[in-house]
Amino acid sequence: MIARPNPLRFLPDPGPAMRCVTTLVPTPLLNKIAQSTLNLLFAGALKSGELAFLQDRTVRVNVTDMALDLSITTRRHQLLVHKADHQEDVTFSAEFAALVEIITAQTDPDTLFFHRRLSISGDTELGLSLKNFLDSCEPAEIIPRPVYQMLRYYQAKQPIGIGHS
């Protein structure tokens, strides 16, 4: 069997590119992109009512090493994304690399929390409901294959251990 070279190895680290995008692209446009993407990815869960626990509740996601701080809620079976206003029910804060580990299901959020790479504040019951929902998702089935492969490749290149900063 001949090993094929991985074309993903030619891709740059997405972290700096994401930081550039989140700095240069206006927040309302970033929020629209995030909203459209999340509604597409979680269309089935929204339709089946799996995200009903978010109805009129707000989750804040703060990517600490980027200019990305947004709030997510549901209304009428749609996810809505808007600028964080610090009135959220629960807040998740982490660096981009830690969030990629969660998104690709490579590291449990509890592990990141206990290693101080994920901060959770506010309504812990809502945070636990969201964690349980995400645990029930199969990322490889939700995220388009090329994006999932890029995220996994990026995650695999990251330093391993508690020493993440």
Mean pLDDT: 83
Q: If helices are DSSP runs of H or I spanning 4 or more residues, what is the number of helices?
A: 8
Largest sheet: 5 strands, mixed
Number of domains in the coordinates?
1
Structural class: alpha+beta
How are strands sequenced across the largest beta sheet? 3-2-1-4-5
Reported CATH architecture:
2-Layer Sandwich
- H and E order: HHHEEEEHHEHHH
Amount of helix: 40-55%
Q: How big is the Rg?
A: 16 Å
According to CATH, the homologous superfamily is: SCP2 sterol-binding domain
Q: What does it look like?
A:
This protein has one domain (8-157): SCP2 sterol-binding domain (Nonspecific Lipid-transfer Protein, Chain A, 2-Layer Sandwich). The protein is 46% helix and 18% strand. The chain is built from 8 helices and 5 strands, in the order H-H-H-E-E-E-E-H-H-E-H-H-H. The protein has helices spanning 14-24, 27-41, 43-48, 96-103, 109-114, 124-136, 139-142, 145-157, and strands at 59-63, 68-75, 78-83, 90-94, 118-122. A 5-stranded mixed sheet has the order 3-2-1-4-5. A hairpin with a 4-residue loop joins strand 1 (59-63) and strand 2. The longest helix has 15 residues, at 27-41. It is globular.
